[in-house]
Write a structure and sequence with these properties.
This protein is an alpha/beta fold and about 120 residues long. It has a domain of about 70 residues. The protein has a 3-stranded parallel sheet, covered by helices on one side. Helix 3 links the parallel strand 1 and strand 2. The longest helix has 14 residues. The protein is elongated and about 50 Å long. The model has no long low-confidence stretch (mean pLDDT about 80).
Length: about 120
């Protein structure tokens, strides 16, 4: 059997429980073996509006904000919900836009497919 030396252009990895994202990315980048074979070019984080705040006092999860900052994620998919008030959604979007770039936050309603370009 002939060995194929073609290189993959894109690998998509889904990491459950986004509170591990920042830690995983930094650990992967520290690994010499991983760095020789892969180059992490883009990280996209998905945030659910219903899971945004940890308490009723609008205290957000620290790991949620850490995973959305510019140095970790290149874009944030913000899944809105009809269960959350519009004023709350606006506050959440402002927080995410302050963490990431203004155009780096993509609000979607429910499970939505889109072109990654």
């Amino acid at each position: 059997m002939k060995e194929d030396n073609t290189k993959l252009d894109v690998i998509v990895a889904a990491i459950p429980a986004y509170h591990h994202l920042k830690k995983v990315i930094f650990e992967l980048r520290k690994s010499e073996e991983f760095s020789e074979n892969f180059d992490i070019k883009f990280v996209i984080t998905k945030v659910l509006a219903t899971n945004f705040f940890a308490t009723k006092n609008r205290n957000h999860y620290n790991f949620l904000i850490e995973n959305c900052i510019k140095g970790v994620s290149h874009a944030v998919i913000f899944e809105t919900s009809s269960q959350v008030k519009l004023s709350e959604l606006g506050l959440m979007q402002r927080i995410l836009k302050n963490c990431n770039f203004e155009d780096g936050v993509l609000p979607v309603h429910g499970r939505h497919s889109f072109d990654l370009e």
